[in-house]
Amino acid sequence: MSHILRGAAVVGQSGGPTAAINASLAGVIEACILHADVIPKVYGMRNGIEGFLEERLTCLNPLFTKEDGLPDTDGALKMLINTPASALGSCRKKLPKPADDPGFYENLLSLFKKYDIRYFFYIGGNDSMDTVAKLTEYLRTTDYEMRVMGVPKTIDNDLMGTDHTPGFGSAAKYIATEMQEIVRDCAVYTVKAVTIVEIMGRDAGWLTASAALPNLVNGEGPDYVYLPEVPFDMDAFFGDVARAFERHPNVVIAVSEGARFADGHYVGEGTQSGAVDVFGHKYLEGTAKTLENAVKEKFGCKVRSIELNLPQRCASHLASATDLSESFLCGEEAVGAAVDGLSGKMIAMKRAENPAYRFGYDIRYATKDIASIANAVRTVPREWIVPENNNVTDECLRWILPLIQGEAEPVWRDGLPVHFVIK
Amino acid sequence: MSHILRGAAVVGQSGGPTAAINASLAGVIEACILHADVIPKVYGMRNGIEGFLEERLTCLNPLFTKEDGLPDTDGALKMLINTPASALGSCRKKLPKPADDPGFYENLLSLFKKYDIRYFFYIGGNDSMDTVAKLTEYLRTTDYEMRVMGVPKTIDNDLMGTDHTPGFGSAAKYIATEMQEIVRDCAVYTVKAVTIVEIMGRDAGWLTASAALPNLVNGEGPDYVYLPEVPFDMDAFFGDVARAFERHPNVVIAVSEGARFADGHYVGEGTQSGAVDVFGHKYLEGTAKTLENAVKEKFGCKVRSIELNLPQRCASHLASATDLSESFLCGEEAVGAAVDGLSGKMIAMKRAENPAYRFGYDIRYATKDIASIANAVRTVPREWIVPENNNVTDECLRWILPLIQGEAEPVWRDGLPVHFVIK
Fold it and tell me: Which has the higher per-residue pLDDT, A202 or A57?
């Protein structure tokens, strides 16, 4: 254990929303309040590092502390845990390299000093860990002591260095549940029909794989799932559909938004805008729509495409209790590790085997060097995709299954979930 | 009370799936089992009247009766109630007029006689009530005594003669909850953006109106909702968006798939296929997509369109407990009324005021003459839409609110809801 560093903390959220990112925020807040002797104040930066630069800070202690000084675990924090999307707002700012723009970092440093900020917690995905890494790199060149910790978050489950990412389990549970419901819906008619469901995940197929979970649990899932990790072949796809029609009239398919042909072109490229986001990612749309048109032409049957769209990442009402609990603990662990003296790390989860638990599943928390995390993408292993490239193995599904266990228990008022909105 | 009519019952489901149509089926089954002295057998017709003509019948008693002869209320029936879509399958067959095709009806009659069917229960929407009406009309010309009852069902809430329709409350609860979650998701960035959510309901705006429920409950709903009952005006719409941008950067809009211009053309007509279903309804797609392109061109800002799609009608995991309970009772009432001697009727709900209940809301069950129901559409009253045609009144929302109260409690196994599949 390092020396005790007294000062304020600031916490921010960055990147796309998830159903669990506020659970991690709640974990950071609760741990800061419990460490009030070391961390007298925890600020929330509004809209991530962008808002911080504009000094848009909200002191969070009054919102989440009871009169006795303890965290309001069963009140405001519980509501926050069950609120989707980033309660502090988000940003997609890519930080310059410290060597390229020292003025940018000097500006940041003056604000850290102004608010006596000694702890910096950033909850986000790959791009956010890049922010944490650059800030850590810069701080090494100064004599200002501040401890910087990353808390992982992404529905895509594509971060390196952690068994899985907070937010993934809830998205997977939503997708699996909706797929099962859609399969039931599609089963009611006897007319031949193909339903194609498009699922998020540009480069990693973890979410698309989750669509097949009902097959493992009760045999009532989609006929095929197509991941971005392996090439998509239109003729093989038509063959798959034809074979499914031999089994039943209602064919249901899940496809990743990032599915692409062997030549690297996205399946949905025909109908995409060609735009890229600030990180250079191609903005996609219409993979399922493209396949809908292809199947319609080939088979002449009824075809329909469905994009599960935003609810995949914000359906807090159907969050995984396991995911929310792990996300909260990741936030808590980040504060604990920083108070203990660590910096420049990301909290990681390690899967441990414990026969006493459900599916023998247990999680230990650890820290990973941030430089080893940023900007690398973890995909579904080749051996977890069947040789025909049209499904995942049971081993893959058994790996995902523990992450969707348990149902969130939001507070309901007048028939709707209660969200905690930080004004 | 009429004389006692002994014989078998048959129950079918028709039209589009809902999250509550199996609750009505469960109500019919439970009541038949409880009336086993009069109704010794209840058959399920697979895929509605179409399957009945092919004698695809399943005797339901063994699946839902306990060893002691009582209905398996806490087991199979509970699972069935929480299963989305028509467990017996559905069809979209439009019956000929009895005078036009007497052979068709003689065929039906011979099957009623073959199975000694004396009770006919049909769960469905407008088109299904048309089936019930025609069958009733035909039976009057024969000396075969069979009692025919319609049980209403449709997420669209567009049936005449009943306060509201079973299935609507669950769809409304899903839509309102997702809208609230989408509003939270959209609020995280500071960049100007418009999100347009397309909602089911070709001619009636009840579901689109439900998107505004979060505004009533907690002020966190969409900026505007556009119903099919009033003309859509593109310039007025642009004005609405511009005014919303003065309040906040993230504009969220709900629009009916059936929104149309003053000249009667659908907003989504530009991108629609032009196909019609067997009832002559125009098949629509792309209302939100059309508006997305229009807003992009006009404002040059980030725009995104979302179709809530099938989950609106099959998200059993988020069904309204009020809706499931009412749907079940409608099924039970149909059996009770038929045993009491009624025929050619639809079960209807009447709203009663009872200060002892939540929101003072209470429901009484009644029967309506089937001929007065079929083929008429009930829309949102003009006075419940604001003069600017871009929202609904609080009075409208207060009318819908009781119908989304309470949360379904599906059985969960291994992280997914358990559905009852009739093999």
Answer: A57
A310 vs B182: CB contact, 8 Å cut-off?
A: yes
**pLDDT digit string, tens, across residues A223-254:** 999 999 999 999 999 999 999 999 999 999 99
Pair B142, B171: CB distance under 8 Å:
no
Q: What is the mean pLDDT of residues B161-173?
A: 97
Quick check: B182 and A313 CB within 8 A?
A: no
Q: Are residues B343 and B286 in the same domain?
A: no
B283 and B366 both lie in a single domain: no
Given B72, B130, B156, B158, which residue is catalytic?
B156
In a domain, A230, yes or no: yes
Asked if A217 and A273 sit in the same domain, the reply is yes
Tokens coding B239: 């004005």
Evaluate whether residue A392 is within a structural domain.
no
**pTM (2 decimals)?**
0.95
In this predicted complex, what is the ipTM? 0.95
**Distance, CA of B8 to CA of A163 (rounded, Å):** 58
Which residues have C-beta within 8 Å of that of residue B357, sequence separation ≥ 6? none
Return the closest-CA partner of residue A229 out of A340, A105, A386. Answer: A386
- For B167: left if phi > 0, alpha if psi spans -120 to 50, otherwise beta; the answer is left
List of residues 6+ apart from A132 with CB closer than 8 A: A122, A148, A149, A150, A344, A346, A370, A374
What torsion do the CA atoms of A111, A116, A118, A120 make, to the nearest 10 degrees?
-40
Q: Are residues A135 and A257 in the same domain?
A: no
Same domain, B79 and B129: yes
Out of A85, A173, A182, closest to residue B185 by CB: A85
Contact A310 B91 (CB under 8 A): no
